[in-house]
Amino acid sequence: MSVFDWLETTRPYQYARVQMNKGLVDFLVRRTVADRAALQVAEVACGSGFAAHLMAAHRDVALSCAMDLNLDDYRQAAIPDFAAQFVLADLFAPPVLAESFDLVWNSSSIEEIPNPERAVACMAAMAKPGGLVFVGVPYKYGLAGLLGLFARGESKEWLGRNYSWAQLSALMRSAGLEPAGRKRYMLGIFIGILARKPHTEKNLG
């Protein structure tokens, strides 16, 4: 077990993660509900699905889907009264219709996926025209970036890639998305960009 795997089991880390997810979910719902009600939302590569569970509790959210390749983290977390809909799904071949969701989002998984451009493009395909996509990743000029300079082996793999604001913005634009908001969170360890999917296909890049 790497030091980072051990860190995830500690109470302070778990508390910080819960508070981060609550704040992030509040931010996403506020920014999305401004345009529409009865939101249909999908958290992809969701792990335990805890954030999707929190999302489902919002009065403006009609459907919160938690999507992941397996149930391992979900079963291990054993979240009481799980409120989201857990869907076994490959992000690159999701078992849902295209343009089904008002918001498609992920925090802290894209940096571990070998082809992030394709991953974000698949997220964009799931969003409705005019809908939103959010991606949160470790910040290159924050604590994650600093640790990445010294990490080796499993620890470096656990941290994944880190991004500057410009790099994350370019990633979103590579999928034809237009950045519409940003958030720095969990003590500046992560940054996220909320981007809008154009209404017309001719604008997709």
Helix amount: 25-40%
Which CATH C-level class is it?
Answer: Alpha Beta
Query: What gap, in angstroms, lies between the N and C termini?
Result: 42 Å
Mean pLDDT: 88
Q: Structural class of the secondary elements?
A: alpha/beta
Which residues sit in consecutive blocks of at least 5 with pLDDT less than 50?
none
Biggest sheet strand line-up? 3-2-1-4-5-7-6
Number of domains: 1
Walk me through this protein's architecture.
- The termini are far apart.
- This protein has helices at 3-8, 11-33, 50-56, 72-77, 116-126, 143-150, 153-159, 165-174; strands spanning 39-43, 61-68, 85-88, 101-107, 127-138, 178-185, 190-196.
- It has eight helices and seven strands; from the N terminus they run ααβαβαββαβαααββ.
- A seven-stranded mixed sheet has the order 3-2-1-4-5-7-6, sandwiched between helices.
- It is globular.
- A hairpin with a 4-residue loop joins β6 and β7.
- By secondary structure, the chain is an alpha/beta fold.
- The chain has one domain: Rossmann fold, CATH 3.40.50.
- 38% of the residues lie in helices and 25% in strands.
Short description:
This protein is of the alpha/beta class and 205 residues long. It has helices at residues 3-8, 11-33, 50-56, 72-77, 116-126, 143-150, 153-159, 165-174, and strands at residues 39-43, 61-68, 85-88, 101-107, 127-138, 178-185, 190-196.
